[in-house]
From TrEMBL, chain A:
Organism of derivation: Azospirillum humicireducens
NCBIfam families listed in its UniProt record: 3a0106s03, PRK10752.1, PRK10852.1
InterPro entries reported in the protein's UniProt record: Sulphate/thiosulphate_BS (IPR034408), Thiosulph/SO4-bd (IPR005669)
Pfam families, sorted: SBP_bac_11
Entry keywords, A to Z: Periplasm, Plasmid, Signal, Transport
Keyword Signal: yes
Signal peptide region: 1-22
Gene Ontology CC terms: periplasmic space
Major subcellular location class: periplasm
Similarity field: Belongs to the prokaryotic sulfate-binding protein family.
CDD domains to which the protein is assigned, alphabetical: PBP2_CysP (cd01005)
Subcellular compartments: Periplasm
GO biological process per UniProt: sulfate transmembrane transport
Protein name: Sulfate ABC transporter substrate-binding protein
UniProtKB/TrEMBL annotation, chain B:
Every ABC transmembrane type-1 domain range: 83-287
Statement: the UniProt record of this protein carries the keyword Transport: yes
Compartments (UniProt record): Cell membrane
Example GO molecular function: ABC-type sulfate transporter activity
Name the UniProt record assigns to this protein: Sulfate transport system permease protein CysT
Lineage: Bacteria, Pseudomonadati, Pseudomonadota, Alphaproteobacteria, Rhodospirillales
The species this protein was found in: Azospirillum humicireducens
Membrane-topology annotation of the record: Multi-pass membrane protein
Length: 335, 300
């Protein structure tokens, strides 16, 4: 083939690709999310596309992107065309707002702090619970190995850490020094800090390292489903944290792509009975009261503290996870 | 660097190369690719876009911290510990590769055996394999319940995965081809007659190795070592799964950069990256000078 022909062919292909891409951008959404929501959104997207097509007569494709919550937020800041973000922490969407992609008051635009479903942190242990782990104070005992991801890189791990902190505060009558000691003792029992929640799940379930995995409730149930209830069991501590993974439309992107309507409908669908039901089936705690009672047997009754107890995400991040914060201090002295 | 070592070694080995080695007038020498101005211009532009501009952007980004901020960002105990881990273990891995990579190259050049081509191809595998895949495979193998990790732990009480040893193994794995592929052509061009001559003059095997083989191979070996070392320092994918990532213990510099990015601390990440670049550059420079010195000694 001559060079000229090759060039022509390349140009033709590029044009065709541009054409496809342009046609594609009409009713296509990109949902940028974190690791453990993969299975949930596969099911949810199918249901929403069906409803959208029934209502508007337009076909819809929803693409999904999963990874560590912070990394995902950074990709969006750096130009990944996300119509919707569904992340593990409000803090990560705050960072996107700081970059000017959506207004700073994004969290008040949807009900329940823009968190349509919640979750919490539970323990996954080996079948029969050989180390007899019942509550947080069992995790600081010598010889117990705890698996949790690195709070610096994983949103889920930050929930884990704060849940332990909240327990320690409660057990010690609000004494911060003692809480720090407790968490530092707990972290001493951690042999591997994976960078994300899925990594930790693999370390615990497949590499068989550690006695207990601190995990998202839905991730723990998925592990049971995947590996069978004959290998692992779930232990619910006396106190945990109410994890509220928030969702938001990325204004800058939807306005440029002309997808605002469908993107907003997508998020609102999360709050409908059907959306809530899919969330509940995937072990996310639904917000809708009647579904909460219907699926009550599925979720353990546990005392939950909220992020507000820490003064919100920005304050918690600043105090615990920023450079020189409590987490760094714990690792700086004596390991 | 590799090319220089290759051609130099190759030319030194062949008698007919004298004309090429004569001093070359800078502009008069007719060349296959036309236009010195054009080619140099292209080279500089190309290098700028691929190497210089990205690196300059990195340094520029970290410069927003100011000198004081830069210094305090790269001298926290945690960063220093990560530097020790990254550079120390890369050095150890490169050293291991220098010794055993040399052996592999020797066997591939000097002996014939069935399946030799297969082994030869295997050497390149660490180049081709996505590093994350390598990392997952290595950590599965060396984990306390893995095929290799379990017997090692039970027989010798040796823990590999999630310790510095695991990092060293991952870095050795990805660095091996550099040593083999730089040393191999030199060994190939080393005439066996020189060894025979040494033997006929009564040299012992060790003397032959020390005075005949090693001097000829050493510059290439150092090049391979330097490449393997540089690769190890920047390696992320294969290490991250086997490292355990404990701050101050098994945390590598590239992970620290990712952690800083995760906190939206772009300037801090760039600062650590710049420091890493600086140290790497310095070490490569030293190795390069060392190599030149050795080569001039050998030529004498």
């Amino acid at each position: 083939m001559s060079l000229r022909r090759l060039t022509l062919l390349a140009a033709g292909l590029t044009l065709a690709w541009l054409g496809v891409a342009a046609a594609d951008s009409k009713d296509a959404l990109l949902n940028v999310s974190y690791d453990p929501t993969r299975e949930f959104y596969v099911e949810f997207n199918k249901a929403f596309a069906k409803k959208w097509e029934a209502e508007t007569g337009r076909a819809l494709t929803v693409r999904q992107s999963h990874g560590g919550s912070g990394k995902q937020a950074r990709s969006v800041i750096d130009g990944l065309d996300a119509d919707i973000v569904t992340l593990a922490l409000g803090y990560d969407i705050d960072a996107i707002a700081d970059a000017g992609l959506l207004p700073k008051d994004w969290q008040s635009r949807l009900p329940n702090n823009s968190a349509p479903y919640t979750s919490t942190i539970v323990f996954l242990v080996k079948k029969g619970n050989p180390k007899g782990i019942k509550d947080w104070n069992d995790l600081v005992k010598p010889g117990v190995q705890v698996i949790t991801p690195n709070p610096k890189t994983s949103g889920g791990a930050r929930w884990n850490y704060l849940a332990a902190w909240a327990y320690a505060l409660q057990a010690n009558g609000g004494d911060e020094t003692k809480a720090k000691e407790f968490v530092s003792q707990l972290l001493k029992n951690v042999p591997v800090l994976d960078s994300g929640a899925r990594g930790s799940t693999v370390t615990f379930t497949q590499r068989e390292i550690g006695d207990v995995l601190l995990a998202w409730e839905n991730e723990a149930y998925l592990s049971l489903q995947e590996f069978g209830a004959d290998k692992f069991e779930i232990v619910v501590p006396s106190l945990s944290i109410l994890a509220e993974p928030p969702v938001a439309v990325v204004d800058k992107v939807v306005d440029r792509k002309g997808t605002r309507k469908v993107a907003e409908a997508y998020l609102q669908f999360l709050y409908t009975r059907e959306g809530q039901e899919i969330a509940a089936k995937n072990y996310y705690r639904p917000r809708l009261p009647e579904l909460a009672t219907q699926y009550a047997g599925r979720f353990a009754d546990v005392k939950l503290v909220t992020i507000d107890q820490f003064g919100g995400w920005r304050a918690a991040q600043e105090k615990h996870f920023s450079d020189g914060g409590v987490f760094d201090q714990i690792f700086q002295k004596g390991r | 660097m590799v090319a220089a070592a290759d051609s130099d070694g190759a030319l030194a080995g062949k008698g007919g190369a004298v004309t090429v080695r004569a001093p070359i007038p800078l502009f008069r020498k007719p060349s296959v690719i036309p236009g010195f101005g054009l080619t140099l211009g292209f080279t500089l532009t190309y290098l700028s876009f691929i190497v210089l501009i990205p690196l300059a952007a990195l340094i520029l980004r970290s410069s927003s911290l100011g000198w004081g901020g830069f210094w305090s960002a790269v001298t926290t105990p945690r960063v220093i510990a990560a530097f020790e881990v990254s550079f120390g273990l890369s050095f150890a891995a490169a050293l291991t590769n220098a010794v055993f990579g040399f052996l592999v190259a020797w066997v591939l050049v000097r002996y014939d055996f069935p399946g030799k081509r297969l082994v030869d191809a295997l050497v390149d595998l660490p180049f081709a394999l996505p590093t994350a895949v390598a990392g997952i495979a290595l950590s599965a193998l060396y984990a306390p319940n893995g095929w290799l990790g379990k017997p090692l732990n039970e027989l010798f009480g040796l823990k590999v995965a999630f310790t510095p040893l695991g990092i060293a193994i991952a870095l050795t794995f990805i660095g091996l081809p550099f040593v083999v592929r730089t040393v191999q052509p030199i060994l190939q061009d080393l005439p066996a007659e020189e060894e025979e001559a040494a033997a006929s003059l009564g040299a012992s095997r060790f003397q032959t190795f020390r005075s005949v083989i090693l001097p000829a191979v050493l510059p290439a070996l150092v090049t391979g070592f330097a490449l393997s070392f540089a690769r190890g320092v920047g390696e992320y994918g294969s290490v991250i799964f086997i490292a355990g990532n404990m701050p101050g213990l098994t945390e590598i510099v590239p992970l620290l950069i990712v952690i800083k990015l995760e906190q939206y601390d772009y300037a801090g990440a760039a600062a650590v990256g710049t420091a890493m670049l600086g140290v790497s550059f310095l070490m490569l420079l030293i190795l390069n000078l060392l190599q030149q010195w050795m080569r001039s000694r050998h030529a004498r």
